[in-house]
Amino acid sequence: MAVATVAALLAALGGTLWLAARRFVGAGVQRLHGGGNAGLMHGKTVLITGANSGLGRATAAELLRMGARVIMGCRDRARAEEAAGQLRRDLRQAGGPEPGPDACGAGELVIKELDLASLRSVRAFCQEMLQEEPRLDVLINNAGIFQCPYTKTEDGFEMQFGVNHLGHFLLTNLLLGLLKSSAPSRVVVVSSKLYKYGDINFEDLNSEQSYNKSFCYSRSKLANILFTRELARRLEGTNVTVNVLHPGIVRTNLGRHIHIPLLVKPLFNLLSWAFFKSPVEGAQTSVYLASSPEVEGVSGKYFGDCKEEELLPKAMDESVARKLWDISEVMVGILK
Ligand SMILES: NC(=O)C1=CN([C@@H]2O[C@H](COP(=O)(O)OP(=O)(O)OC[C@H]3O[C@@H](n4cnc5c(N)ncnc54)[C@H](OP(=O)(O)O)[C@@H]3O)[C@@H](O)[C@H]2O)C=CC1
Ligand SMILES: CC1=C(/C=C/C(C)=C/C=C/C(C)=C/C=O)C(C)(C)CCC1
């Protein structure tokens, strides 16, 4: 018995160490890969929702380094300012190019307040964008909330469906004109593999009859994919492309609503460090879809690790996608 226990512990320790070693090598390769694109985004304006944390922050860091003007659409100005300060410090410490007009200069960071749980905030944000921004080359619908307790947005929508889908639905529609006038331009939507466990229950989109926090998250991520495919269909011929991705499992703040007993939290942190991607690794596909010439003209596709992946039939259902679009228009008040 003792021998078996020791063997099991050694195997677990060995496995964790091997994974940790692999992560270091992988991360190094990722950084080297990213290094070759300095200046690629010079002169381009990118809007990233939820850019003060996790994947959005890592995506902003990379696109900033590549020379983009990055607009951080965040709901909390203090957190956004803190993140922006760190991003600028990181850029300087990495010896990266100074922000500036020359072709290889780093880009610049702009903070604008955007709360996707409030249609009023989304409209005010878009009005400011249209007044102040001459162009929009890339919109990255990144912000998200995961398995929160049952709450509703300011407009009465179930919070995950409201923030992850409906807020981005209105935002994208209100910025379509600017995206079209900036063509060739791109929309990038951050979904999740967990879409597979979702369904669009048109009878109870706000989960008023019953609430399952996991199914609601999955529903919102399935909605991201259906929205992407319907938008791609409607944008044919405009030179505005839209693609959707899953980042893998990434060590971010998304798990803030997951209750972990205090005693096992250190173990979960260790496991997440060994098994989860870093935000930089998780952001690679968002950066790829936002910037790579390889996907110029590609639209309506689902990506993971910078490669196109197959979708389940329920995510390819055009009639459900069209019905979701029509209902979303009514819910957010986009009058025909
Ligand atoms: N981490 C993972 O393993 C995975 C993540 N994803 C997706 O990645 C995306 C980014 O999440 P991740 O970086 O992991 O998590 P984080 O919690 O670190 O970042 C989420 C971001 O969304 C913002 N946000 C939340 N609610 C709102 C709102 N109402 N209005 C505006 N912004 C809001 C947060 O702002 P604030 O800081 O103020 O809360 C934060 O900036 C999400 O769409 C998520 O579904 C998909 C698969 C796996
Ligand atoms: C980092 C970390 C955690 C976060 C887990 C997360 C963020 C899981 C998200 C999974 C998703 C969103 C999958 C697909 O969409 C825990 C478990 C709270 C423990 C502490 C360390």
UniProtKB/TrEMBL annotation:
InterPro entries: NAD(P)-bd_dom_sf, SDR_fam. Its EC number is 1.1.1.300. The keyword Nucleotide-binding does not apply. Keywords: Lipid metabolism, NADP, Oxidoreductase. It comes from the Eukaryota. GO terms for molecular function: all-trans-retinol dehydrogenase (NADP+) activity. The keyword Oxidoreductase applies. SUPFAM superfamilies: NAD(P)-binding Rossmann-fold domains. It catalyses: 9-cis-retinol + NADP(+) = 9-cis-retinal + NADPH + H(+); 11-cis-retinol + NADP(+) = 11-cis-retinal + NADPH + H(+); all-trans-retinol + NADP(+) = all-trans-retinal + NADPH + H(+). Belongs to the short-chain dehydrogenases/reductases (SDR) family. This is Retinol dehydrogenase 14.
